Amino acid sequence: MSVTFLKRNPFQRILGLCATPRPADEGGWRYEDGALVLELARLPELAPHGGALRFEGGDLHERVLVIRDENGTYHAFRNECTHGKRRLDFVPGTETVQCCSVGKSTFGLDGSIVHGEPKGPIDVFPVEEKDGRLIVRLG
After folding, report:
1. H-run or E-run covering 12
2. Domains and CATH numbers, the chain
3. Which of 3, 99, 107, 124 has the most CB atoms around it within 10 Å of its CB?
4. How far is CA 50 from the centre of its chain?
């Protein structure tokens, strides 16, 4: 598999600036009973294939990256590279997520290592789409 790298300048890579935004509507999600619950109608950033958002703060005890791949399937990950704990970004047009740092650690949508020197695979969370919600089981 050839690896596509996100285009970033050295300043962005050195500082580890994540390209994936947080939701514009912070009220479109909540943490409840060990799950991240997303109200999809309030999160239009996830509507297009290739959409991605990062969730953090509030009652959420860890950072989570949620993407909708090019086939329209949702995926969720612990938003932490195993190489240096920096955030991850979806690489549009591919089936990979990539660390925002200089090392360019890259992972498949199953969490497996595709490129770089991470210490191990990333955690993938199960997701379920139900009644206009996306439920991400974190525990």
Report:
1. helix 10-15
2. 10-137 (2.102.10.10)
3. 99
4. 11
